[in-house]
Amino acid sequence: MTYRLPRQFVSLASIAFAAMLALTSVVMSQPHTAKAAGVVWSTDFEDGTLNAWSAGGGGGMFNSGNANVTVTNERAYSGSRSAKMTINANGSDTGARLHRWTEADRYKGAYYSARYFFPQRVNVQGGWWNIFQFKSRTSSRNDPFWILYVGNRSDGSMYIYLRDWINKRSYQQNVANLPVGKWVHLEVYYEEASDNSGRVTVWQDGVQLFDVRNVRTGYSGGRNTWGVTNYASRLSPTPTTIYVDDAVIATERQGPGNAPAPNPGNPTPTPNPGNPTPTPTPAPSGRLTWESPKDGITITGSGTLRVSAPSGTAGVRFWRDNWVWLGSDWNGSDGWTLPADTRSWGRGQHRLIARAFDSNDRQIGEHIITVTVR
């Protein structure tokens, strides 16, 4: 049976449903707390297994050294289970790692998130502690590209910093510490590019820590992988355990929109003026509208996609059909456009999806049309 979308605006719920239909080969376990809209893969570990990570041959568990990952009912953010990741980091590299590459390879721009629980303060003695990473693999290389590391401040408090592993550059922040004994939500928007057109944006409990644009995020032709990890060389105390719950890959933000109230036992430090907490933006006026092509027309060959966007737009992202990534435009000085070649799309009907985002990466507009390629 052929499913045709009406030529009109489509609700977010319909978009999420269509996206999930396209991924029926992937076993999904919907987290209790994750928003349904835009979710393309997820696990909350409530089935008591780690099977969602390896479903469809699209990932798995890849431990090294003295490391272990199990599903436990010791604690959970939602439901009654989470993943318990334990390493004995006493001087040699050791890692507990859960990887997923099917969706990371399919969606060139997506949101990756999980809930983390740190039961105690840890001293990072070996220089690095990797808890969230993106890798790229070719026939000859298999390297991390961007990593969320845990470090210690001068008073011993733990915090997240961002590492460009390929270029050996670290990005620091003074916006937030990591809480101890409390669940924390980490989310990354990762736009993959083998040239310097990629983007990495990081939020902790809805507060933006980093927004790094125009960077390289993968090898040309490489298979991209996302991982939640507990990976280090020397930590104290050790063995070191962290818990992970509600891991999600989505085409929309899943985390909270506002920062939580400060934890009295772990106060939020003074924001770094060079990397401030996002401030509320005025409500946008106008709406996102396709200018070229128009809804319902027949197109062929190559050309330029063009939309008009509401006020407050900082960027527009483009997809076709069931969330096949086309690209994005973050410079609207000449209009919101994207070159496109329809010859690789195949003949017949196709959906074109455009979404507008503000400077805090919040979606403020959407328009979906149907065109025919001949």
UniProtKB/TrEMBL annotation:
Record carries keyword Phosphoprotein: no
Keywords for the protein's UniProt record, in alphabetical order: Signal
Domain of life: Bacteria
Region (Disordered): 253-305
InterPro entries, alphabetized: Ig-like_fold, Polysacc_lyase
Signal peptide: 1-36
Ranges annotated as biased composition (Pro residues): 259-283
Protein's name according to its UniProt entry: Uncharacterized protein
Organism, as annotated: Sphaerobacter thermophilus (strain ATCC 49802 / DSM 20745 / KCCM 41009 / NCIMB 13125 / S 6022)
